[in-house]
Each structure stands twice: as structure tokens, then as C-alpha cells.
Amino acid sequence: MVERNLVNVLLLGGGFMLIFTSFQTLGNIEQTIIDSIKKDLPSFTGDGYTSLAIIYAALSLSNWVTPSVLSAIGPRLAMAIGAITYCLFMASFFVPHVALLYGCSVVLGAGAALIWTGQGMYLSQCSTGETISRNSGIFWAMLQMSMFFGNLLVFFTFQGKTHIDETTRSIVFAVLIAVAIVGLILLSCLRRPATNGDVPVELSESVRPREAFLSLSLSFFSGVYGSSIGFTNAIGTSAKQYVGLNGVFIGVGEVLGGVAFGLLGTRTTTRWGRDPIVIAGGVLHMAAYFLIYLNLPNGAPFGSTDEVAYIHPPSALIAMACSFLLGLGDACFNTQCYSMLGGSVAAAASFVYSSYCGLHVQLIILVLLGITGTVTFCVVEFAVKRERPALERDYEK
């Protein structure tokens, strides 16, 4: 029974790794790709940030009805349907049309609610109180690997290109869709969890003090930052290539941070609590935002620009270092206050203002919310520490 549930968790992690290898790569390059499509097809007026905003808005709304749907169809079928919507969204780029792009964005948002809620339910069914930490760790580690492979494909296929031509775009889309389909097949192979009388653990989803900031920062480095690097002409002819490498360095930071703070940080959290790691994540993100402010021009999120910021010419090395810091800082937050879906409204809002606010304005918003979120988290954490001894004494009585 134990082996069967472990196999299920490995299949679950493998399926999500492949599906999100495709989707996170596409999200990272979507605005860059759409900018190239507009140059080849002037009648196309779609916008990558608007598409991502629609996805997260639909995800937020769908969360209200998803539990009822799962109770009717079960988590395995829900995840399979959700995976199909990811494939459909990526396939829509073969036929550039505004209505198709935004329509598939709505469908994907609903599918994302299904796949993630189904994942939480299925993982809990495969786990007991004794195995939930192990199973969650396996799933999280495999999911983080999704940042590497697709972005490496982008790095090599975009090499030396200032404009992403239709042939290159088609190759990238075809590979990403094929990878996602393999992920769908793995999810379709999931078997009914084995039980031996143990009660499955319940995965509760609580609202954290840093939830809004986590969503905004994720939206920034998963959709806005990579595009800003690719649109900064002063970086050189390899600017588009660095969009993919940016995703790789974010992934390196995520994995190293996950190992350091998730798997090896038990002693730290037991002795000092979670707040030192969360504060470290905040400091890492503040450092990254400051360097990005100096390195990339304000108009970078909107399209190709010859503007420069305070560092002239912009440094690709600093840009990649910031990618690593963003991934490492995000791992600090996720290993201590992980929340899967709760911040989808904030993510949608961030992609809306990304279409109108310059890069420097977005960085200021992130800094202000980051400081506020870190302070509120620490206040709550300190309050819990003060109350814990009294609660323990009451329990002993």
C-alpha cells in the first residue's frame, strides 16, 4: 500500500513538472512572443499581460465552484481536465487571434482551479499524518524542476535573435505542447489511493499575512521581469536569449532555497521560528528590486526600447543575478508560508497594472508591499510565540 501511494505521488509530481515546464516557460516568454507576432501580423492586438490577468481572474472566480465540481467528479478526472486546458491554451498560439487568446485564457483559469484543487485533494488522499511531509516535499521538489528544461529550450532557440520569427515560435510551441501532453498522460495514469485504515491528512488553506505580496512578486518574476530583459535592446543581440536563461536562474534559486530552507531548515524553525527565514527572503527580494531598478529602463515591460537606466549599458550578469535572488527569496517564503491559490486576485490585479505602469513604478509597489508583508508576518509570528507557552500550560492542566 505504501509503495502504491508513493508511486502515485511520483506520477503526480512528474505530471505537474512536465505540464508546468510548458506553462511556466510560455508565461515567461508570452509578452516577448506576442510582441514578435504583432510585428509579423499587425492586425493582432493581443497583450500578454492582459492574457495572464484574465487567467488569474478566472482562477479566482472558479475557486468558488471548484470544490463542488471535485466532489462530483473526483480529483483525478479534475486534474486531467485541467491539464487539457493548459494544452489548449498553448495550442491557441498557432492561430494568433485576440478572441481565441483571451477565450483560452478564461478556460485555462477555470482549468487551473481544477488541477490545483485536485492536486491538494489527491495528495491528501495519498498521505497520512506521518507521510504528508515526505509526499509534499517530493511533489514540491519535482515541481520546481519545471523552471529548467523549457527555459533552456528558449535559451538555445532564441540564440542571436532580436525578432522571434514564425518558424522559431512554432518549434517552441510544438515542443511545449508535446511536453504538456506527456504530463497529461502521467496524470491519466494515477490510480486510486491505497488505504489501510489511516485517516487521510487534511490540507487546510489559510490566508497568510504575506499572501498578497507573494502573488504580486510571483506575477512580476514569472511574467514581467523576463519580458523586460528581452525588450531592453541595450543588453545586445542576446537580449531575447536571456529571457530563457532568466527562468533557469530563477529555478536554480528556487531549488537551492527549497533544499536549504525546506529540507534542512527544520532546526532553524524549531529554535528561532519561521520569521528569520521570511526576513531573509524579504531582504533578498529588496536587493533584487534595487538592482533591477538600476539595471533596466522604466519602459522595458511595454516593448522593445533603446532606453537605459542608471547602469549603462545594462548588465546581463546583474540581470541573471537578480533572477537567482528572486528565486531564492521566493523559496524562503514558500517553504515557510506556502499558499497555493489564495492570492489569485492579487496576481490578476498585478498583471492588469503591468500593462500601464512602468517597471520602476512596479518595483516601488513591490518594495512597499514587501516591507508591509514582512512586518505583518513577523508581528503575527511574535504574537503566536508569546501565546504558545500559555496554551501549552492550559493543555497540561
UniProtKB/TrEMBL annotation:
It is found in: Membrane. It is a multi-pass membrane protein. Pfam families: UNC-93 (PF05978). GO terms for cellular component: membrane. The chain crosses the membrane at residues 7-26, 46-65, 77-94, 100-117, 138-158, 170-190, 211-231, 243-265, 277-296, 308-326, 338-356, 362-384. Keywords: Glycoprotein, Membrane, Transmembrane, Transmembrane helix. It comes from the Eukaryota. Signal peptide: none annotated. Belongs to the unc-93 family. This is UNC93-like protein MFSD11.
